[in-house]
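To whoever picks this up:

The parser on our side crashed when reading a file containing two proteins. I've narrowed it down to the boundary between the first structure block and the second sequence. Both blocks are reproduced below exactly, byte for byte. First block:
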Amino acid sequence: MLRFGYAARTHTGLVRDNNEDSGFAGPYLQLVADGVGGAAAGEVASATAAYVTSAATMGSSDPNLLEVLARAVAKVHEQLRAGVAAEPERKGMGTTLTAILTDGSQAAIAHLGDSRAYLLRDGELSQLTRDQTFVQMLVDEGEITREQARRHPQRNVVLQALDGDVVPAPDLQLLDLRLGDRVLVCSDGLSDMVEDDRVAECLAEPDRDAAAEALVQAALAAGGRDNVTALVADVEDGPLISRDGAPLGALQDPHVVLDPAAVRSDRSEHETALD
C-alpha cells in the first residue's frame, strides 16, 4: 500500500515575529496552511484549517478522496465563519491550504491560494499546483514572465483563500503518484524566496530530513522575509499503519484551533487528528 515516509521543517523566518504557517505531516496526509490576516488571527485560520482537514481525512473511510477533501474544506469554511461571528475582530482572517491525501491505493490533492506542491520524479521537478494569485493570472495571460512574477510588487495578492466570507472552490484532482516519487508541500515563504533550480537541488538530497532542512535554510539565506514551511515526503510501499502525524507551526498550539470538538469522525478510533 502507498504511504509517505516524511520529514518536515518550519521556521518563523528572519522578519516575522510569529509563525502563521501550520502543517501536518503523516503517512497518509501532507498539508500546509499559510495564515493571512495578521492581527486578524492568521494563525487561528491556518491552525483550524490544518486541524479540521487532518481530523476529517484521517477519520474517513470514504474511497472518494476528492469528496473527502471537498467536505474537509467546506468544514473549515464553516468553522472560520463561526469564529468570525463569535469574535468580529477576527474578520479578515484566512488561510491557504494545500493538502495531499492517500488511502493506500490512490492519491488526491486539494489546493487553495499560493502554497505549493511539487513532484520530484527521476530527478525532474514539476509543480503540482497552480498559484491562485494575481501575478499567476498575469503569467497565464502572457502579460509577464514567471521570473517577473517573482519580483512583481503585487506578487502576494491571493485571489482565493479559505476564510469566513466566500464559499471556497478548491482545485481538486487525483494524482498519479508512483513508488520512488518525492513530494514537497511548502508555504510561499519557500517558493517566493528560492528559485526552482535550487528547490530541485535541495529536494534531491537523498536523506529527506537533510532535504527539508536544506530547503528551509535556502529560504533563510535568501532573506527569510516570511514564515517558511517545507514537508518532504517519499512515496513508499508498506502495510497500513497509524494515521497519526506531526503538527507543525501554529498547529502545535491547540488553543488557537477554533473548535476542535466540531470535527466528528465516522470512525471513532480516529475521532481527532492529534489524539
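<<boundary where parser fails>>
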Amino acid sequence: MAFDTEFAAAVAIELALKRGLEEVGPDELLLGCLRAVSQFGIAQIGPWAIDLEALGVEWVEIPVRGGAKVAYSDAAVEVFDLAARIAKANGGGSMRVEHMLAAFAGRESGLMGELSLSYGITSAGWRAAVSKMLPTAPAVAEVPPAQDYLSPEEAAEALGIHVQTLRGYVRSGKLPARRLAGERAIRIRRADLEMLLEPLQE
C-alpha cells in the first residue's frame, strides 16, 4: 500500500488551522503522517499502536486537499528536507510518508518526544518499524530460458526475415524442421537457425 504524502500534508494543514496556528509545525506533520498510515484511527508502527483519537485527531474526517494554504515552520521544512535525503538514500525514489516518519526518529522534543517516552520508542526501533512499512522491491523476474523450438513465425522474427522466406528455406532443405506428431505445424530448433548465417566476406 502506498501512503500519500499529499494526504498527510492536508491533514497537517487542517490540524494547524483548527488549532489556530499560523504555521504547520512538526507535531502537525507527524500527526498527518500517522493519520495517513492509520486504520480505524490506529497507526500501527511496528509494535506500537498509536491511538489518533487520544492525540486529538478526527480520523473519520477526510481532509480537503488543495484547500487553505498555511506556511510550514522552519522545523517542519527541516523534516521535509531530511525525509527527502532519506528517500534519496533509500534508492532515490519519490518521497513517501514512510520517509517522513523515518525523519522523526530520534526527535526528543514535541509530540515525537512525548510518544517516545509514552511508548518506549528508540530511534533505532522507530526506524526499523518504519522500514518494514515500505513495500518490498519486486523480485527480479527470472528470464525464461530461450525456447528450443520455434514456430516458423518466431524463427522468421528471430532472423529478421519474412516468414515465407523462412518457409522457402525449409522446403529447399537449407533449414531443418520437424513436424509435430499428427499435426501440420512445424517447429524449428533455435540452434539450427545458425545454419542460415554465413560469415561476411569482404
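After patching the parser it read the second block fine. The radius of gyration is 30 Å. The CA atoms of residues 23 and 71 lie 5 Å apart.
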